[in-house]
Amino acid sequence: MTQILIRDIIQSPLAISSGDAEKLYTKLREELKCNNQIELSFDGIDDFISSFLNASIGKLYNKEFDYNFLDQSIEVKGLDTSDMNIFSKVIERAKSYYTNPHHFDEVKNELNNE
To answer: Of the residues 39, 40, 80, 83, which has the fewest C-beta atoms closer than 10 A?
Structure first.
């Protein structure tokens, strides 16, 4: 199992920037393409925002990988219950979005036209 410490990847205790999210996404994608099991550690991360999770982890659900493969390959460590709930919601929403992105785009366009 490959351990990925988010803090080591982004060199910060704050997981908030899109650039840092892209660094983590790239690392996760590399490991998954090698069929590696991943322990994703939030140890040393003092704060994160959901858009960081969307851009780094949610983006993995874009159909390049099977959802079951992703769910079984990534083990998350270092989150309290509240943060784990946010993480889980990001994954649920990513699955919903990438299952039917056209629906979400249509709804977004309708809201923008109001």
So the answer is: 80
Q: Amino acid identity, residue 18?
A: S
Asked if residue 23 lies in contact with residue 37, where contact means CB atoms within 8 angstroms, the answer is: no
Cα distance between residue 88 and residue 96, in whole Å: 12
* CA 72 and chain centroid, separation: 14
DSSP 17-45: -HHHHHHHHHHHHHHHHTT--EEEE-TT-
Beta carbons within 10 angstroms of residue 10's beta carbon:
24
What is the pTM assigned to this prediction? 0.88
| Residue 76, C-beta contacts closer than 8 angstroms, at least 6 positions apart | 40, 42, 84, 87
| pLDDT exceeds cutoff 80 at 103 | no
List, in order, residues 6 or more apart from 57 with CB less than 8 Å away. 24, 25, 28, 40, 74, 87, 90, 91, 94
3-state secondary structure of 77: strand
